[in-house]
Every structure is written in C-alpha cells, then in structure tokens.
Amino acid sequence: MSNNSLAKEKIKILLLEGVHPSAVEELKMKGYSNIECISTSLAEEDLIKKIANVHFIGIRSRTQLTDYVLSHAKKLAAIGCFCIGTNQVEIKAAQKRGIPVFNAPFSNTRSVAELVLGETLLLLRGIPEKSAKAHRGEWHKSAAGSVEARGKTLGIIGYGHIGMQLGILAETLGMRVRFYDIETKLPLGNASQASSLKALLKEADVVSLHVPETLQTQNMMAAKEFAIMKDGVIFINASRGTVVDIDALADALKSKKVAGAAIDVFPVEPKGNDEEFISPLRAFDNVILTPHIGGSTKEAQSNIGLEVASKMAKYSDNGSTLSAVNFPEVSLPGHTGTSRLLHIHRNQPGVLTQINQAFAKHNINIAAQYLQTDDQIGYVVIDIEAQDSALALRELKQIDGTIRARILH
Ligand SMILES: NC(=O)C1=CN([C@@H]2O[C@H](COP(=O)(O)OP(=O)(O)OC[C@H]3O[C@@H](n4cnc5c(N)ncnc54)[C@H](O)[C@@H]3O)[C@@H](O)[C@H]2O)C=CC1
Ligand SMILES: O=C(O)C(=O)COP(=O)(O)O
C-alpha cells in the first residue's frame, strides 16, 4: 500500500480460488467491505490486471504469484495463502517489495491425514480397481492381492504436521510406522525414524509423501526410487505434484511394481472445474485420482478462511506480522490515541539511528517503537502523536534503505 492510511472501505481485497465465505465474514466484521471473490485462479494476464489495483490478495495453491506478477502489484500490502503451501508465491520477491505473506499452517492437516488413511485401506484391498470393474459390469470376487492394514509398514516421507497425524491414525489400525525426514524428529507413538530414504523405501508396504515443494523435493520420487521399493507397494502423494516423476510412476504401475496409488496433486493442474484434467494416470483403474482436495473439507476451509483473513486484517489494522512466512514477526498491542507508522527497509546498519535522529530533529515524540529484522529486511513500527504523522512519514521515506513506509488507521 503506498502512503497514507486509506479508509477501510477503500481498501480493495481480492479473494481467488473459491476462498471460503468465512474469510469474507471475518473481513467484513473487521470493517473491510471492498471485497471481490472469484471462484477460480486467473491466467497470468488477467491476474496482472487485477493485482495492479488491490491492496490485499487471497489465493490458494493454484495462483502463481511470480516476481513478474508482483512487479505489477504496486498497491499490494500483503498476500494471504488460504492453504499451507506457499510455494506458489515467490516469497523472496514479495519480501524485497516489503509484502508479507501469511498462510494457515495447521488448519487442513487433519483432513489430509484422514484422506490418506482412508486411501491406504482401500488400496490395500484393491478396491479402486474392483469398484471400476463393477461399474463396468465385471464381478471380481477374489482375495488375491487383498491384505489387512494391521501389521503392515507405513513409510511416511516428511514427518511434519500431516505426516505425524497420519502416523498416529495409522497406528490405531495396528500399522507399523516408519518415517524419513531431513530433520531429526520426535517420533510420536511407536513410530521410528529411518536412517535414509533408501532404508525407508526398502521396507515400506505403503509409501506416503508429505514434504513441501522445494528444490530438494523436486522429482524426489523417480525411476530409481520406485525400483528400490517393495514389489506390489502402495504409493500415495497428497503433497505437491512436482515431488513425483509422473511418467516414472506410470511405468511402475504398468510393470506392477506399484500395486495401487492415490494421487491428489499433479505437476500441472486445471485452473478451475471447467478445464479438462490431463494425466497419464487416467489409464489406471488401480489409481485413485482426486482433484487436489486433500485439504478440502468444510471444517478445514472454514477454519482457514477465518485464520488467514484475521491475519490479513491484523496486519492492516495493527501492523502485526505474527506467523508471516517471509517477514520479521512482530505481534503488536493496539495503538489507541496515537498514530502508527510502518517502515520496511533493507536490513543494513544504522537505519534505526537515522530514524531516531530524523524524529529528534523535529521533536517528534515516540510513544512506542518495535523493531524486528531478518537476514534481508527490517520492520520498524513506531507510535507517535497523530498531529506529527504526516511529517514523520515524509522523514521516514527519506531514510536510506527504505522499501516502503505508511501510516495505519
Ligand atoms: N493435498 C492437499 O490438499 C494438501 C497438501 N499439502 C502439502 O503437504 C505438505 C506438507 O504439509 P505439512 O505436513 O503441514 O508440512 P510441515 O512443514 O509440517 O512438514 C513437512 C516435513 O517435510 C520435511 N521435509 C522437507 N524437505 C524434505 C526432504 N527433502 N526430505 C524429507 N523430508 C523433508 C520437513 O522437515 C517437515 O518435517 C505441504 O507443504 C503442502 O505442500 C498440505 C495441505 C493440503
Ligand atoms: O494447503 C495446501 O498446501 C494445499 O495444497 C491445499 O491447497 P488448496 O487450498 O486446496 O488449493
């Protein structure tokens, strides 16, 4: 957002990809009424046109906020990812423009864990294939290839919020849980950490992926990894489409190395429900294909709407950046009776000294000051008497290293 405080009804908020109505309710309750909701993501050209005029944008996993798109977002104050993943946003590019990115790190984790558990049971019994056959009029009553979950080994790759919950749920079915993670993690229940990815892949009857999209996780499941797995393994991916080499998975299904799979995320996903879904996996009856709905439950979406909208409103009202993924975190008290100024700058020595000297020169009294920095940027919040705010803002903009400065309500 450029300079001075805007009246709340002038603050434009764009919510894409069918963000839950709880977000709109929350924003309205906080006084924000200028909200546009669109049920799909937008093609880059349309996104650029829209983003040029908004102060806040809310997206889910589909909208790509690249450096290029953000270069058109001159008024943008903050981004809300109404999901866990923030890989769809070039968060460093947002950071260098002084734009915090918020997400909902927990609210849909249980939904994903429940879905994966259900898929595990169905795949161990060959249900997707049997069901597809029955739909075509084929009766396939047989115990061949059908096994109980009890006593089988679940290999979880990425033992974070989702992986851990999945592990606990799977143990209630009597599964043995092993996990692989780049960090040393506290095992919950009777789970235990494998010494390497290879060790995990060798012993798992079911492999389930729960890692974020990063450079290291790109194609982390490819032909070499499928070759290490047990014959007849069950394979599940509800993390990100880029983590699996989809052609290698198709080959492993053809050769029966993989007996069944459940895939929720894809290297390329349709922009909306009207677009055709294209994938080589459509050919396999023994693959459960879901349209990236791991976190799409009423409970999760409603909680996410509330959570992220309230983080955006807190930033707009108060300057609080608590739980921003790319920004120094500041949790701030209210500022009744004073004007609050936000100053975002490149993290270089002497910025605070410059600010304090500039304010002292004009006898601007500082009622409260908060500073947090990370390796790239510094974020200073200053409360002053309302009558000094215009002058103080002018001074702040002169400070060497300033990325943006503004006055809150
Ligand atoms: N299908 C869907 O609708 C949903 C998908 N997701 C995806 O699931 C991912 C995981 O979610 P959470 O469990 O909440 O994240 P988290 O951040 O709590 O856990 C991720 C775990 O993966 C580990 N990890 C990172 N890089 C790794 C690597 N190269 N090898 C092994 N482990 C690695 C981390 O150390 C961490 O323990 C999200 O990043 C998101 O992409 C999340 C929610 C819904
Ligand atoms: O939370 C995540 O990271 C997800 O993948 C869920 O994405 P969605 O909000 O369903 O587009």
Automatic annotation (TrEMBL):
Domain ACT: 340-409
Protein name, as recorded: D-3-phosphoglycerate dehydrogenase
Gene of this entry: serA
Pfam family, one: ACT_AHAS_ss
Annotated catalysed reactions: (R)-2-hydroxyglutarate + NAD(+) = 2-oxoglutarate + NADH + H(+); (2R)-3-phosphoglycerate + NAD(+) = 3-phosphooxypyruvate + NADH + H(+)
Keyword Chloroplast: no
Keywords noted in UniProt: Amino-acid biosynthesis, NAD, Oxidoreductase, Serine biosynthesis
Family to which the UniProt record says this protein belongs: Belongs to the D-isomer specific 2-hydroxyacid dehydrogenase family.
Lineage: Bacteria, Pseudomonadati, Pseudomonadota, Gammaproteobacteria, Alteromonadales
EC number annotated for this UniProt entry: 1.1.1.399, 1.1.1.95
